[in-house]
Amino acid sequence: MAHQLGSEEEFKTTIADYLESLPAQFSQRVFSSPAACLAIFRLISTVGKQLIMSMLYLDTSLRLQDVCQWARTDSQRMVRGKIHQLRKLQLVTEDHGNVSLNPVFRAQLRNALTGGGDFSSFGTPFKGGGRDTRITKAQLARYADVKWEAMLRFMVGRQDGSGESVVQPPAESVRSILRTAKLMEDGENGMAITNSGFQFLLQDTQSQVWTVLLQYLRQAEMQQMDVVEVLNFLFQLVSLQLGRAYSAEPLTTIQRRMLGELRDFGLVLQDDQRPMCFYATHLVTMLSSSSSTENSDKSDTKGSKALSASPQGELAASSSQGYIILETNCRIYAYTDSPLQIAILGLFVHLVSRFSNLVTGALTRDSVRQALSQGITADQIITFLTANAHPQMQSHVPVLPVTVTDQIRLWEQERNRLHPTQAHFYKDFAQKQDFDRVLRYAQDIGVVLWASIEKRQLVVTRQGHVKIVELVNSQRAASSATTSS
Amino acid sequence: MVEPVESDPSLLVVVLDVNPSAWARSPLALDKALQQIVIFINAYLALNPENKLVVIGASKRKCLLLYPSDSTVDAAQDIQVYEQFRLVDVKVLSGVQAMMSQVTVDNINSLDERQSPMSRALSMALCHIHRINEDQTGKIWSRILVLSAGEDAPREYISLMNSIFAAQKMSVLVDICKACGQKDSVFLQQAADITGGNYLKVNSAADESLLQTLMFTCLADHYTRSVINAPGSALIDF
């Protein structure tokens, strides 16, 4: 079964499942910070959000029937379902037919909107002297990119199999996350990449970061760490501002350890000379901004980046410009010189020539089939090409030529033409009624794979064979009993 | 007709009526109303990180874009509130303050002064909506929220109806929140009715009643409104 990779959706469902399973006193602790409440609020469905907002400033409780009356008649059941979901997440409490918001959650969400309460949950800024040179956004971006690419190159580099260890292996925490997420496994020559790892490489950066955070949460659970603190810190991370120095003073020991481990991924930058000071990089801050880089690309070129609610989308967008041109004859021209991007392209493209700023190749049947056999799906290839398409290509609708996308899908379907199934083949039935009886019985239990009534031949599955043998034996016993008597 | 999908982003344009003589007559104080509007805006931004916001301030003589604007915001030393909210709140509040202080009025009690021309603000709002739609690659659902305390200006009937029909064509919902006591604004009622938005009157000055009303009726985006009922208005004086 394909391991469904982490994306924002999976993160949401995991957090939701986790919150449902928390006992009451722990959930009070999770809800006790405005940042956590805001992050949890963002995870629930749109209708759920509206229900919560409608009840947020009502101090009395409402009757459940009244709340259901808010919905239109054809959506009543859906709204009831949403209320039930909110109850499972412990955001809404029900008491004798009256519903009201969880009081801790309500108070802290109000604080998040109005700015009261423990505002350090959004991150305390670092005050104090030290070096005068403040870390600039460009420095942060470079640091994050270097670390993240080092991890990705480590994943791709091993695939060559030629044993070259030009790539520096990253820190142990990174490798353990890769191992537990089943993105890489331990092989003879060190770690080797798995099928899920290939899929991970083709995803966009946001999904990759969500996967890492999710895996970190799972690992914390397995190691019996206090998951509430880990969750609170994750929620705080996601709402930090880019380029601002934050103090690690109010963090607990577990959270400080997390800080050290997340530093190896390039998600935060910790100043060596001022260990109490840390910066969040764009990898983390872009998680809370718009999910697709296409939107931020287009609006940034018009220079109106202040329009979207989060001002930190621009740095992420500038580093993810499209660079691939795909022609209708399946030829690819990639304007890049980064070895990581070339290695990722090499997974499914037959690379032909390489210049100082350009790599050319073609999508051939062999190269795509090789990628398919390693577990990459056609949809992932198409999504990857669309997401990294050159801006000139993005003005077309659809972005990629239809001939090429259809051809990739056809190559994928070729692998699905034959489905082998283990089966048993019956022939040479003596009498027609024997055959009819067996056929009817096999159809009743649903194990027929193929039958030919003229030729009196039947193919059934393995499990079906056992049952049919029992049937035939019992009938033979019955008929021999009748003949003998 | 494209149906709204749950995860589509929205664009909200808030038109604030900054007419001091009109607000002097309203049962609601302007500063309290502004505080509640700001919390409402924060709630809107919290719904979906991709939601976009434009705030326009409309006074008798001027119509200014308050957010997003190029005015500089001084960086506060301590973070009192979530940074994204804080930027918006500070810009809106300081913009309204600047507009109010620039209003010089000769005869503050005259009938003319109580009327707030809304058609100018609506046209500006529609232009912004059109521009953002051009920039955006995906589908974005737009609506306008008008907070008004003044009365109708009869001479702008035609221009107002033109903007209302333009909004209807662009499938933009117009919600009206009226804070002027007993009198209804007939033109704005029609605006809400034609475009499919809500018309609300806020009479009481009780704390947070404006906020509760806004949250309950105007926070929902296109998708949620197809699921949850909005309070209907009974009589419209055509």
From TrEMBL, chain A:
GO terms for cellular component: transcription factor TFIIH core complex; transcription factor TFIIH holo complex. Keywords: DNA damage, DNA repair, Nucleus, Transcription, Transcription regulation. It is found in: Nucleus. GO terms for biological process: nucleotide-excision repair. Residues 406-469 form the Transcription factor Tfb2 C-terminal domain. The keyword tRNA-binding does not apply. Residues 290-313 are annotated as: Disordered. Belongs to the TFB2 family. This is RNA polymerase II transcription factor B subunit 2.
UniProtKB/TrEMBL annotation, chain B:
It comes from Coemansia guatemalensis. The keyword Transcription applies. Component of the 7-subunit TFIIH core complex composed of XPB/SSL2, XPD/RAD3, SSL1, TFB1, TFB2, TFB4 and TFB5, which is active in NER. The core complex associates with the 3-subunit CTD-kinase module TFIIK composed of CCL1, KIN28 and TFB3 to form the 10-subunit holoenzyme (holo-TFIIH) active in transcription. Keywords: DNA damage, DNA repair, Metal-binding, Nucleus, Transcription, Transcription regulation, Zinc, Zinc-finger. One of its GO terms (cellular component) is transcription factor TFIIH core complex. InterPro entries: TFIIH_Tfb4/GTF2H3 (IPR004600), vWFA_dom_sf (IPR036465). It is found in: Nucleus. Component of the general transcription and DNA repair factor IIH (TFIIH) core complex, which is involved in general and transcription-coupled nucleotide excision repair (NER) of damaged DNA and, when complexed to TFIIK, in RNA transcription by RNA polymerase II. In NER, TFIIH acts by opening DNA around the lesion to allow the excision of the damaged oligonucleotide and its replacement by a new DNA fragment. In transcription, TFIIH has an essential role in transcription initiation. Belongs to the TFB4 family. This is General transcription and DNA repair factor IIH subunit TFB4. One of its GO terms (biological process) is regulation of DNA-templated transcription. One of its GO terms (molecular function) is zinc ion binding. Signal peptide: none annotated.
